[in-house]
Design goal:
188 residues, alpha/beta, Rossmann fold, 29% helix, binds S-adenosylmethionine, Class I SAM-dependent methyltransferase, methyltransferase, methyltransferase activity, SAM-dependent_MTases_sf
Length: 188
């Protein structure tokens, strides 16, 4: 197998900021590459719920088209400040130190990366009106599972089950690594 491609420069910068902040909760590179590829198909406004230190945002930025913009919300003001450093002078990215729910007024979004780490907050019912028709929702951090309904830690994974079976979306679970999967759901 050949070596994986180099990281985009903006993603390397985000990793430097993360390291300096001592923050390690960022999306995997496999998820990041998927986000970049999806972002490259989008116009309008893309959003991320849960910025962390900006690694996922940087992956989105690496793929985004001219004219589209990315809004990302982070509850922790210190982390939001660190992430904002990465995108100083970048008119296509805005980092807000805020609860993600405050982004609702800027929707509906063409792509939504749900990454606040609180599954109960990102059910289909709560999110559906924030996504434009044809818009894409991405959720990561699932463990691949061959059973239906999907089981995580001995319990039905109701979040994954909900996103994969709701008729308002056409959704697929994509394995990005042997131990990790992502749900991609497109609004009908
Ligand atoms: C898994 S980390 C985000 C990682 C980031 N998306 C990345 O890929 O690098 C989850 C972040 O969501 C933030 N968070 C949790 N609840 C939130 C909320 N209601 N609004 C905004 N951010 C939230 C947490 O503070 C944490 O920094």
């Amino acid at each position: 197998m050949s070596a994986p491609p180099e990281l985009p420069e903006i993603v390397s910068r985000a990793f430097d900021v993360s390291r300096r902040a001592g923050y390690v909760s960022f999306c995997r590179n496999e998820t990041g590459r998927l986000l970049a590829a999806l972002a490259a198909t989008r116009g309008g406004t893309l959003a991320e719920f849960g910025t962390g230190c900006g690694v996922g945002t940087a992956w989105l930025r690496s793929g985004v088209r001219n004219g589209a913009r990315i809004l990302t919300a982070e509850l922790n003001a210190k982390l939001a400040g660190a992430a904002a450093e990465i995108f100083t002078d970048d008119p296509q990215v805005e980092v807000l130190a805020a609860d993600w729910s405050t982004l609702a007024e800027h929707g509906p979004f063409s792509l939504l990366f749900l990454d606040s780490g609180i599954p109960s907050e990102v059910t289909v019912d709560r999110i559906v009106d924030l996504v434009e028709p044809g818009g894409i929702v991405v959720l990561d951090d699932f463990v691949p599972c061959e059973m239906w309904p999907p089981i995580t830690a001995g319990r039905v994974d109701t979040l994954r089950e909900g996103w994969l079976s709701d008729e308002r979306f056409t959704a697929v679970e994509v394995m990005i690594a042997p131990d990790a999967s992502v749900v991609v759901a497109t609004r009908r």
